[in-house]
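testing teh design pipeline on a random one, pls ignore if ur not involved
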């Protein structure tokens, strides 16, 4: 039995699923099992007598006691702080985005006004990234998709931590267990819905990385072309505003966003662990934001889906594919022509992993949707593959 209905889908609660995932990834195996508990043994050569009892029923009166004993046994076995083990175990199926502000004051306190701005920054960045996950645009204004606004109500925050005043934003990273052949429509719809959180965080990470390169890393002032290229990576006025809202506070010295990816879910490609914006970057970030506010047209559509059909003649350099995706809440089969490198990616992805495609999407009544591709990337492996 996994976590109960009383525990929310997005949570840092440590239940049987989290414990089992952690142990399996740490070199332990199930040696005996029943409805109420499991016995796990280590596969290390020097610890053949090491055993752990894993409780399986969350509603049992002694579940927390048994879980605490398990954590104590692991602390002794691994010879590392129990808090580190608890933290990693609790994050097996969730991504944690740490939004923090460094300041000049004692680490035990933080100004109320700056704290309010930090929470606002976190919310603003979640909405900006959620919108950019659906389409790339320099300035969304009142055109933020409804799905993106809802995202800010769906994510949770953990308790703040001392130091640089950290606000942990918690999002789902787990996708449903289903194979390609069992039920493709259900797979596409469920994975699409449950993957939105992870896709949003990946977009946030890539957008912040691109913004950091323009606003902090570059030795020269970014050109309009540089900024618009950044939009393709997820930069928007709203994302800049989220960073600036905290960074402009006179008590804040730097603004940092760190990413702790769910250990039990495959690590996304091309993302950084953290991005830091010093207060000295405010003038340039403001100029970037002013330029973005003029960019009110959709630059690209973004779709996520599964390659269903591949077609390439002997004389073709690349080939054509059809991608099954959810667009605007409807299932669509989208036709696209790919160059050689992208076509090879499509072949690699077939029945193995989803793809992310950016480009110009053309949908006409009575015709098959067509996409002019700007970027074609592998995304995440299918469940059970």
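output:
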């Amino acid at each position: 039995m996994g976590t109960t209905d009383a525990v929310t889908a997005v949570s840092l609660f440590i239940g049987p699923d989290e414990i089992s995932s952690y142990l399996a990834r740490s070199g332990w195996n199930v040696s005996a099992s029943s409805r109420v508990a499991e016995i796990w043994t280590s596969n290390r050569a020097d610890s053949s007598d090491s055993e752990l009892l894993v409780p399986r029923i969350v509603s049992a009166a002694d579940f927390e006691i048994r879980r605490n004993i398990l954590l104590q046994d692991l602390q002794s076995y691994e010879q590392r702080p129990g808090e580190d083990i608890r933290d990693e175990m609790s994050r097996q199926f969730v991504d944690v985005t740490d939004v923090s502000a460094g300041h000049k004051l004692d680490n035990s306190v933080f100004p109320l006004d700056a704290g309010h701005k930090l929470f606002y920054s976190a919310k603003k960045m979640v909405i900006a990234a959620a919108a950019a996950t659906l389409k790339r645009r320099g300035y969304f204004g009142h055109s933020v998709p409804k799905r993106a606004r809802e995202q800010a109500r769906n994510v949770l925050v953990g308790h703040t931590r001392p130091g640089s005043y950290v606000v942990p934003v918690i999002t789902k990273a787990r996708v449903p267990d289903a194979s390609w052949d069992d039920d493709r429509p259900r797979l596409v719809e469920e994975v699409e819905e449950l993957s939105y959180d992870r896709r949003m965080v990946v977009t946030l990470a890539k957008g912040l990385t691109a913004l950091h390169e323009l606003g902090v890393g570059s030795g020269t002032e970014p050109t309009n072309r540089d900024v618009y290229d950044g939009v393709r990576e997820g930069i928007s006025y709203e994302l800049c505003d989220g960073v600036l809202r905290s960074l402009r506070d006179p008590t804040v010295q730097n603004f940092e966003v760190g990413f702790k990816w769910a250990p039990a879910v495959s690590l996304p490609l091309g993302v950084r662990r953290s991005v830091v914006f010093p207060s000295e970057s405010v003038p340039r970030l403001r100029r970037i934001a002013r330029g973005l506010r003029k960019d009110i047209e959709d630059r690209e559509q973004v779709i996520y889906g599964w390659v269903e059909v591949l077609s390439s003649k002997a004389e073709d350099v690349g080939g054509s594919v059809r991608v099954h995706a959810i667009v605007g809440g409807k299932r669509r089969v989208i036709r696209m022509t790919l160059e050689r490198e992208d076509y090879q990616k499509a072949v690699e992805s077939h029945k193995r992993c989803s793809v992310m495609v950016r480009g110009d999407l053309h949908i006409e009544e009575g015709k098959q949707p067509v996409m002019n591709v700007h970027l074609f990337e592998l995304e995440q492996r299918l469940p059970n593959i």
